[in-house]
Amino acid sequence: MRWLLGLLALLACTAQAGEPLRVVSLAPSMSEIMLELQADDLLVGILDGGERPAALRGLPSVGRQGQLDMERLLSLRPDLLLLWPGSVAPAQRDQLKRLGIATYSAEPHDLNQLLEQIEALAVQVGRGERGREYVQGLRERLQQLRQLYRRDEPLRVFYQVWDRPLYTLGGQQVVSDALTVCGAQNIFADQRLPAPQVSVESVLLRDPQVILAGDPAQLASWQAWPRLTAVARNGLLVVPDKGLERPSGQMIEATARLCALLAAKVPASR
Q: Which of 14, 44, 25 shows the shortest CA–CA distance to 121?
């Protein structure tokens, strides 16, 4: 504990008037938002998860998702932590709370919330004007997508996160709202868990018109059910890219690519 007390003393001496804010991002999506806000110059450390953006390759690492290096984090003397609740273990979140370091936490459940949180973070890090301009553009693009891909009868979609066991996304997940923008409906939107496990039988009962997955191999097993609408109409589709997995500003264009995929495969009938 001696090292911890020493670092706490250092923390108490930081954040002097006029000094740049020292920010540590504890989620890849938050790191990406900082880049989008042109505020990456404030980052002094990040939690790794997947491939780093080129602009952040030189930053110190404070661990990986679920494996936060607390000693390394505190040695960076952060004034502000950017947190995605699932990226840090509950015990370590409690420890960070006890240390009293300012924290900005975000977990949007729909795209409107995502844009509100980006704008709020911009204010938090002193990039309010940039945030307003950036988010305004995203809001206009999102409205354009809603109008362009609206369907009188929503397309029934099963979003497959994993195949063995079978996992999907619940209705409180931001990707579920992205489907709505595309004129589609998550067939498990009534599930409140973020990633509920479901049965093949429940998918067959809800009979999706499209099944989405991140990998073609995860779709192969559905061929055993030729009467399933998604199989009968060649609606087994691979998600265009990983952008939907990162709730940052780029997710709006990732949603646009998803909408285009769905529209090309199942045109709207009005």
A: 25
Q: How many CB atoms lie under 10 A from the CB of residue 243? A: 20
pTM, full prediction: 0.89
d(CA 225, CA 231): 7
CB-count exposure of residue 194 (10 Å: 0-12, 13-18, 19+): middle
H/E stretch holding 22 reads none
Name the β-bridge partners of 112. none
132: number of CA atoms within 13 Å, CB side?
Answer: 4
Residue 85 carries which side chain, given as an amino acid letter? P
Backbone angles phi and psi of 161, in degrees to 5: -80, -40
End-to-end C-alpha distance for the chain, whole angstroms: 67
Cα(8)–Cα(40) distance, rounded to whole angstroms? 25
Cα distances (angstroms) measured from residue 33 to each of 3, 92, 133, 234:
32, 23, 14, 36
Note the pLDDT tens digit of each residue in 7-24: 433 444 444 446 889 999
pLDDT digits (tens, 9 = 90+) for 180-237: 999 999 999 999 999 999 999 999 999 999 999 999 999 999 999 999 999 999 999 9
For helices 111-124 and 251-265, the axis angle rounded to 10 degrees is 160
User: Residues 85, 90, 96, CA angle at the centre, nearest 5°?
Assistant: 85
Q: How far is CA 37 from CA 110, 121, 124, 238, in A?
A: 20, 9, 11, 30
DSSP states along 24-58: EESSHHHHHHHHHTT-GGGEEEEEE-SSPPGGGTT
- Cα 97 from Cα 94, distance rounded (Å): 5
Q: How far apart are CA 97 and CA 9, in angstroms?
A: 16
